[in-house]
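Q: I'm writing up a methods section and want to include an example of the input and output format. Could you take the sequence below and give the corresponding predicted structure tokens, formatted cleanly so I can copy it straight into the document?
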Amino acid sequence: MKINFGRIFEQSLIPDQPREQLAPFIEWVQQAIDNLARALTNSLTIADNLDAQILNQTIRSTAAATSVEFRTRKVPEALLIAQQSPTTPVISSYAWHVLTNGNVKADITFTAAPTNGVSVRFIAFFG
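A: Here is the clean output for your methods example:
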């Protein structure tokens, strides 16, 4: 679906004095709507529009329960698993915490050991 706002105010319909007073505000609103429409039609992204970081980790282990440690650019408020590939073995649980050195440690349990390697995409959200 393509979003097209166009011009929402027809300034000639506003009487002279209020039009002069409202002109800067109306122009600002129209520019904001144009920018929003351009952003929506060009696909908003997490990296460009949220205070977040996407991290990709490949996990290999001979055990179903394993850990991965990585650095984020600052301490996250939330850490989500966004994607895993391949989809087997399945991640059955995970927990994470920040270590004293500032790194993030994610403890992950799979339904079987990821011996061939599983690519996991994390999204860290910052406050």
